[in-house]
Amino acid sequence: MVSFRAGAAAILATTVIALASLTSSTTTAFYIPGLSPNVFHNGDRVPLYVNKIFSKKSPLPYSYADLPFVCAPPKDSKRAWLNLGEVLRGDRISSSDYELIVGKDVKCSVLCLKHVSAESAAMAKDFIADEYSVEWIVDNLPGATRYNQWDGWHDQRLYRAGFPLGKVKWDKSNIHNHVTIRIRYQSQPGPEDGKLILGFEVNPYSIAQGDDSCPDDPLEIGALQVVSDKETDILYTYSVQWIEDKEAEWNSRWDAYLVNTDKDVHRYSIINSIVIMLFLTGLVSIVILKTLKRDIAIYNEEEMKDDQDDGSGWKLLHGDVFRTPSYSSVLCAVLGSGVQVIVMTTSTILFALVGVLNPSYRGGFVSFGLFLFVFAGAFAGYYSARMYKVFKGTSWTKNAIVTATLMPGFLMTIVFLLNLFVWSKNSSNAIPFGTFFALAAMWFGISLPLTLFGAFFGQRKTALEHPGRTNQIPRQIPEPVWYMRPRFIIMVGGLLPFGVIFIELFFILKSICEDQYYYMFGILSFVFVILMVTCVEISIVVVYLQLCDEDYNWWWRSFFASSSSAIYIFLYSVVFFLKQLSIEYFVPGLIYFTNTLMICILYGLLTGTAGFISTYWFIRRIYSAVKID
């Protein structure tokens, strides 16, 4: 009863925190703690970096500097140093010839006159038809398209990262060859007249210009710059405006990118998750209280011992319930990888909550996630070795090596094969050879030794003791009724964890597919906690019902009871693909489903291991309460 009260108190506290988060604002100022702003002065040159083009219709980004129909980067330009996450998400940051001088407005300036071949023009036409957008960077802010939204009191200025490469009008593809760049800044008091950049807006235009001179007024648009399958000359020009903003602050400059327009949906998501969790909590508490009540009655009343044999099916399995399962070594490796994913996911969410991981830290989620996964190998080796000792394994080193290579090796093989298709499309999302070498070095040079290190200490620990002895002859398992068959009960069990997250899953998939920012870390962390509680409870309920049906093969079933929700997530991603995306080609579709498959595998390891660990603890507790002669 004490443990149940503690669990109920924890759930109550979590619910209170969630309800408090619902009433608070969801817009937060994001910046890396301890990072000081760049102060510019009149006459300083502010570098403008070009990154990539991306589209919600295709998961294939391309390096902007490598496009054959735009102005080539400066001859002395160098690629910016990228972290691992930036490389894997397709970033390719280069300097440009755009001159942004602090305090100096430019009415019109020529960037270059580009001769475009027929093949390059056809490429530009295809990119425009696929609605590709351009990402530029100034002072770590992405170039944005501005739009206004009425918030009930006034028009609120909001930003959408990126701006269109071109547009289709009258069945013709028109490339944006002129941009008006607006830099919003805040003046710093003092004799040096410093300026902090608060916003980077880009307004693109398509203008047909016949020579290499800048027109008097490029915004008086007449003919549009059309690209087709014929060679042509394109004149690229730009204007610059510096606008002082006296209302915004530097610490809140990302707010315009991150305003939540779906607050009500997120609220419904949390309420839905809380209802499912409370339903399962009540069900589990009834199971536990009923079990404890029967045990206490059996111990105190001698005449109820006959009822123990007749009515409590799970107690009859004390001699078989801890029998070593089939493929026990594989189970140990899978559980070790699951612990590794749990440590990685929990740590990454915590870093996001304290502000270290945020949209201004480009590639931070992927970089931190990979490094945390590598260093969590020690936890994987430790838990895998402990379970391997429970199953009376004889070679802990072999088990540790299998743990370190089974799931990571499978995922790396998928990534390598997928990368061959991405390479064929010359996308910036293709992983360079050097990055592959770095990933392999992290795997074999850090993760594998740490897994062996953790396994060494795990196998030195005393083996977990089980209550009672295992019979030499396995007990016959009766034929289950249809609703207790393994496949049916596992698939039904996976529905509830999926029901907890499916609303928030929509926003996550949308952010990933459209290369936009996901920043609802508070809601994400709360949904994650509810998901873990739900997985724990559904695994306990499924296994308890199975034991009451006198089926002692629970080891794998406790894992699959909660991890089966990964199947529903994959099916949901198929529906999302058909309803929300407009991907028409084979390679982009292959990338989408392969990445979704890998995410579902990691999710299955996470939820399945959480369900197994809690169920294992629950079974040891209830059988330790049964007095066996």
Automatic annotation (TrEMBL):
Describe its membrane topology: Multi-pass membrane protein
Q: Which InterPro entries match?
A: EMP70
Q: Where is the signal peptide?
A: 1-29
| Membrane-spanning residues | 270-289, 330-357, 363-383, 404-424, 436-457, 488-509, 521-547, 559-578, 590-619
Q: Which GO terms describe its biological process?
A: protein localization to membrane
Question: What GO CC terms are in its UniProt record?
Answer: Golgi apparatus; membrane
Q: Which residues form a coiled coil?
A: none
Q: Where in the cell is it found?
A: Golgi apparatus; Membrane
Q: Which UniProt keywords apply?
A: Golgi apparatus, Membrane, Signal, Transmembrane, Transmembrane helix
Q: Which family does it belong to?
A: Belongs to the nonaspanin (TM9SF) (TC 9.A.2) family.
- Its recorded name reads Transmembrane 9 superfamily member
At the highest ranks, the source species' classification is: Eukaryota, Fungi, Fungi incertae sedis, Mucoromycota, Mortierellomycotina
